[in-house]
Design brief:
By secondary structure, the chain is an alpha/beta fold. It is built from 14 helices and 15 strands. A six-stranded mixed β-sheet has the order 3-4-2-1-12-13. Bound molecules: zinc ion (ZN).
Length: 406
C-alpha cells in the first residue's frame, strides 16, 4: 500500500490497527514528526501528504572505505536503498552490499581522475585508461571536486580552469564509457563575497576560513600570491562551457547545478543542455528559500532531470558532516532530523520550517508538496536510468528475509 493511496478509509484502518504507516515500513529508529495518523471523521479535509514510502537513491554521499557497513545501516534505516559514494572505496573493492530487513542496501563508488596530471604529455592516454578501468570495475560515474577550478594551479600560479581544453579527453572518455560526471564547481555565492559579520554564511566561514574565495589568493603563509580568486559568475561560466562542449557526456551538476541561488539559471541550462542533470546535495537550505510555487514548477517541469542527493558525509574518525558543519562534526543524533527535513521539503507544503543544515544560515524553508509521480522520478527512477541501476521495487514491506550479505 502506497502513501498516496492512504485516503480516509485506509488511514482510519491503519490507525485502527495501531500501525503508523511510516513506522510499519521503516525498521530504523523512530522519526520525529512522523506520528501515527489520528483517526479522522469522514468529512474532515485530507491531511497533507507526507513522508512517502518511496525507495530512495542518494547520488551524493561521502563514506570512507572502512565505514561502508555502518553507513549502509544508516541509509537503510532512512529509506535510502542505494547510495553513490563520491569518495572512499575504489571501484572493485566490493564493500558495497549489506542486507537489512531482507532488503539489499548498496553503496556504489564513483571514480576520480588526477587533474594534477593534466599538464603531462600523456594525459589523454592516462584519462582514457583510468576511466576504462573504472567502468570495467563497476564504478557508477566520475566525481569531480571543486578543487578543479578552485584548487589546482598551473605553473604560472593561475588556477586550472574547469573548461581548460587540455582536460577535454577525460570528459570525452567519460561519455564513451557511459560514466555520468557528478561535478562540483564553485561554491555558495556568499563564499565569494567578503567575510564580514554581514555575510550570511559568516558562521561557516569563521569555522572554515579556507572556504572563502574572495579577493586575493594567499599562499600557505597567508601572503598574497599575485592572483585573485575568480568570481562566482566565472565559475558558473566555466561549468557551463564544459557541459556545452560534450553533448555525448552526461553531467550531473552537484549542489543543484552549482547555482542553487539562481533557479532561473538552472532552468535555462536544463533547457539548453539535454545532457545536464542536477542533484540536491547540501542545497535544500538554499533552494528551500525560493518561492515554493516557482520551485515546484521547476521540479515538476524538469522532473526527469533532477536527482535526490544529500552530500551526507561520514568522517573516518567518527562523526558526520550533514550538509556542512561548524568547528565540530555533527553527532549521530542529528541524522534523523537531517533526512526528515529533506522529506518534508520535497513532500509537504509546510511553510517556514527548519532546513537540514543549521550552520548554513539562519532562515527557514518552504515545502514543495511534489506529486507522487515527480517524487518517484527524483527519488530513484532518474538515478536508475542515468547510472544503469536495477529498478527498485516499492517499500511495500514484502521483501523476503535474506540469510546474509553478499
Ligand atoms: Zn560532496
Amino acid at each position: 500500500m502506497r502513501w498516496a493511496l492512504l485516503g480516509g478509509g485506509a488511514a482510519l484502518l491503519v490507525a485502527a490497527l495501531g500501525l503508523g504507516w511510516w513506522a510499519s515500513r521503516d525498521p530504523g529508529p523512530a522519526e520525529p514528526g512522523a506520528a501515527v495518523e489520528p483517526a479522522r471523521a469522514e468529512d474532515e479535509p485530507e491531511p497533507p501528504r507526507t513522508y512517502a514510502d518511496i525507495p530512495k537513491i542518494d547520488v551524493h554521499v561521502h563514506v570512507p572505505r572502512t565505514l561502508g557497513p555502518s553507513a549502509m545501516r544508516i541509509f537503510g534505516a532512512h529509506g535510502v536503498r542505494v547510495a553513490l559514494n563520491a569518495s572512499g572505496a575504489e571501484p572493485g573493492e566490493r564493500l558495497d552490499t549489506l542486507v537489512q530487513s531482507g532488503r539489499p542496501i548498496r553503496l556504489l563508488p564513483y571514480c576520480h581522475v588526477d587533474w594534477r596530471r593534466s599538464a603531462d604529455e600523456d594525459f589523454a592516454a592516462y584519462a582514457e585508461d583510468t576511466l576504462a578501468r573504472c567502468a570495467a570495475a563497476g564504478a557508477v560515474g566520475l566525481k569531480i571536486f571543486k578543487g578543479l577550478g578552485l584548487g589546482y594551479a598551473n605553473d604560472d600560479g593561475t588556477l586550472l580552469r574547469v573548461d581548460d581544453p587540455r582536460l577535454d579527453p577525460a570528459f570525452e572518455a567519460a561519455g564513451r564509457h557511459g560514466l555520468p560526471v557528478l561535478i562540483h564547481t564553485g561554491d555558495p555565492k556568499a563564499f565569494f563575497e567578503p567575510d564580514t559579520p554581514a555575510n550570511e554564511r559568516h558562521a561557516e566561514l569563521a569555522a572554515h576560513p579556507s572556504w572563502s574565495f574572495h579577493g586575493e589568493r594567499l599562499d600557505r603563509y597567508g601572503e598574497p600570491i599575485g592572483h585573485r580568486w575568480p568570481s562566482w559568475e566565472s565559475m558558473l561560466e566555466q561549468f557551463e562551457n564544459r557541459v556545452a562542449r560534450h553533448p555525448d557526456t552526461t553531467f550531473v551538476g552537484a549542489h543543484f547545478g552549482n547555482a542553487p541561488e539562481e533557479p532561473d539559471r538552472v532552468e535555462r541550462m536544463l533547457d539548453a543542455y539535454p545532457n545536464l542533470y542536477v542533484e540536491t546535495g547540501a542545497r535544500v537550505p538554499e533552494i528551500g528559500r525560493h518561492d515554493p510555487a516557482r520551485m515546484r514548477r521547476l521540479f515538476t517541469e524538469h522532473a526527469d532531470r533532477i536527482l535526490f542527493g544529500t552530500d551526507f558525509q561520514m568522517s573516518p574518525g567518527g562523526g558526520f558532516v550533514l550538509g556542512s558543519v561548524g568547528e565540530s562534526l555533527d553527532p549521530p543524533s542529528r541524522i534523523p532530523g537531517f533526512y526528515e527535513a529533506h522529506w518534508r521539503y520535497f513532500e509537504t507544503e509546510d511553510r517556514g520550517f527548519a532546513h537540514p543544515t543549521p550552520i548554513q544560515g539562519d532562515w527557514t524553508i518552504d515545502g514543495l508538496g511534489l506529486s507522487e509521480e515527480v517524487l518517484e522520478q527524483i527519488y530513484h527512477r532518474n538515478a536508475e536510468r542515468l547510472f544503469g541501476l536495477e529498478p527498485l521495487a516499492p517499500d511495500d514491506g514484502s521483501a523476503e528475509p535474506a540469510e546474509s550479505g553478499e
